[in-house]
What does this fold into?
Amino acid sequence: MGNSLGIFFALLIMIFGTYISVRARQLYLRGKWISIDTSIIDCDVPPPASETTIVITVRFQLNGEFHVRKLNTGSNDAMTYSRGNAVSLLVNPNNPKKCLLDTDYTGPVEKIAIWLVEKIQDFQQSGRFL
It folds into this structure.
């Protein structure tokens, strides 16, 4: 029983750590990439019993050029991700093929991710971060 509990907590920590690292990456990119507001021009909604998530198609303009990208939302919320709805993107200014959905960062887990990003940026500015 004690061994099972240890494995459970180890898995829980791994899942939480992965989530934090993904959110921290998005926050880090928020400071480096360009935020662009656009709308969904198409979406692929999976059947209700499916475990796959909604894939949206967006069109945005950067440096006078139009770009169309398909993005996996990681969500099955058809109300949020339907054709015509507004979304915010983070776009790499040097390579517009690299973009991701810019999501809201308001929960307690996101506050930890924000703290982590601030510490990384402090290390970078001090020259101690490789």
